[in-house]
TrEMBL record:
GO terms for molecular function: 2 iron, 2 sulfur cluster binding; metal ion binding. The keyword RNA-binding does not apply. Residues 125-191 form the Rieske domain. The keyword Ribosomal protein does not apply. This is Rieske (2Fe-2S) protein. GO terms for cellular component: membrane. CDD domains: Rieske. Its cofactor is [2Fe-2S] cluster.
Length: 205
């Protein structure tokens, strides 16, 4: 029987196998496989970034960002205003860590006179990042009550004091709101450490 060399193993391929059209087709197929492999790898990395916990050095991006998320500056957080929901942003890949709602924070600016000394190390120019997940039954905290300077959960009206490390001031919430430490780098908000406790309804870590 005539011995036909394998086209994948040698350059000495017979004419029927190594025609220009055949070589072009093989190149295209290889390129396609390489591209789909790279695309898959990129997708896996993006999913990993989206699902992983906030990391030191992450920036923050608005939770309602459209298009490419942008790093937030501390000046965007105004005093005595509703908290701004945000997710950590991996500056290397540009991916938001929005795969888990436990990564979501609310940003609030607290006046210097209302900031307890114990909380100051966690603030970036007066801006604090708290978990947005209520420690009672996990509802989203979205309201600011100027009258008593508290963050409020509408589900059962728990109130938390941002100036006092997220202490529970009213309602059924069983524990303080976890803080995500921040620092400021050239005006940009940057994560400076892990959450002070596990976000959500679970007991503190
Ligand atoms: S879930 Fe927030 S007070 Fe009940």
């Amino acid at each position: 029987m005539k011995n036909i060399p394998c086209p994948a193993c040698t350059d000495a391929t017979p004419e029927t196998v190594s025609s220009p059209d055949r070589r072009k087709a093989l190149k295209s197929t290889s390129a396609l496989l390489l591209c789909s492999g790279l695309g898959l790898a990129r997708q896996v990395l993006a999913d990993d970034a989206a699902n992983s916990h906030p990391k030191v050095g992450d920036q923050l991006a608005r939770a309602d960002s459209e298009g490419r998320p942008a790093a937030m500056h501390s000046a965007e957080i105004l005093p005595n205003a509703r908290p701004v929901p945000a997710f950590p942003l991996d500056p290397a890949s540009g991916a938001m860590r929005d795969g888990s709602r436990l990564n979501k924070v609310i940003l609030i600016r607290v006046a210097p006179q209302d900031l307890h000394p114990d909380v100051q190390p966690y603030a970036a120019g007066g801006v604090l990042a708290y978990s947005s997940v209520c420690t009672h039954q996990g509802c989203e905290i979205s309201e600011w009550v100027p009258k008593d300077q508290t963050l409020m959960c509408y589900c059962h009206f728990s109130k938390f004091s941002p100036g006092r490390a997220g202490e529970v001031m009213a309602g059924p919430a069983p524990r303080t709101l976890p803080l995500l430490p921040l620092k400021e780098v050239d005006g940009v908000l940057v994560v400076a450490g892990p959450f002070t406790a596990r976000p959500g309804v679970a007991k503190s870590a």
